[in-house]
Design goal:
This protein is α+β, with helices and mostly antiparallel strands. The protein is about 45% helix and about 15% strand.
Length: about 70
């Protein structure tokens, strides 16, 4: 993932959350990442999740704020 420094565990949690459903909104992916036990002090985690999703090559953007695995 390019310009942003996401740790591998964060990217793994985002991928795991997205693989649980067909297409998902950023807020739902964020909720699943948190339920999965990812610890963070990030106050804008949804924004970070959205940025990560746009930079993951195995993820396709369906429409604004909605993504699925390719």
């Amino acid at each position: 993932i390019n310009n942003h420094d996401f740790d591998l565990r964060f990217v793994r949690e985002v991928y795991k959350a997205l693989s649980a459903g067909n297409k998902m909104a950023v807020k739902d992916v964020t909720a699943m990442v948190m339920r999965g036990g990812y610890k963070t002090k990030n106050k804008t985690l949804s924004k970070s999740v959205g940025i990560a999703l746009t930079q993951m090559p195995m993820v396709q953007r369906i429409r604004r704020g909605v993504f699925k695995l390719k």
